Amino acid sequence: MQVGFDTFATNLHCMIEFNPSVLAAPVQDSRMQQDEWQKVSARIAHDLKEPIRNLSSCAKLLADLNEGADVGLDKATLCDWLRVSADRAQDMIEAILKLSLQGKKESKTEVDLNRIVEDIQHDLTCPAKNENAMSLITSCNLPVVNAGAWGMRTVLQNLIENAFKHGKPGATNHVWISSEGNAHDGWIIRCTDKGLGMTQEQIEKATMPYQRFNTGAIGLGMGLYLVQQIVAEHGGELTINSEPHQGTEVSFTIPA
Length: 256
Hints:
two-stranded antiparallel sheet, alpha+beta, 2 domains
């Protein structure tokens, strides 16, 4: 029996209305220490939030559209975003499964940072939501680096999302991603914004877990903590330069 579209959309919305933190339960695997798994599980829960939010928003709008509501988007557009977000979540899940089977850190490969930034821009401008409608990302000739693909995605997404979360209210929030270096000497990647900035005290606490300086922002305050962990695993260093009301530059190194 064919399921009606309204039933499909409603059921899909219900199925994906869950907290990804359920994936953070420790696995019983003697090859992975508990503290190491806690770091990995925190990344899993954190990184899956964006595609799941997109899925939930699109599914809800599809259900509303089927009820005759004017949501400002057509069915084909919403279905395309469902597909893209589902593919993104599936890619993350496959990476998680591969990592759990290996019982070790993510292996390095050639990673195109331009492609990662493009994917992040795509995710953050999902038409089913409008919180990033006034946000822009500019990047230019970012390198292909030897690194963990999931790790680089996590680092850049967190830096970009943080810049948007702490942008100036009512203004177009612009984030610049730039690079310096070469394949022989290593790379410096910079994420720069003109947002609210941070005090020296906030900078010192920024990479500690559960630090939230914007009480109205969504999240647990794990972003920069995860970024620092991943950069350190790659043998790099994380640097934060910021001035209140002037903006922030976060840079990290990727050794050759």
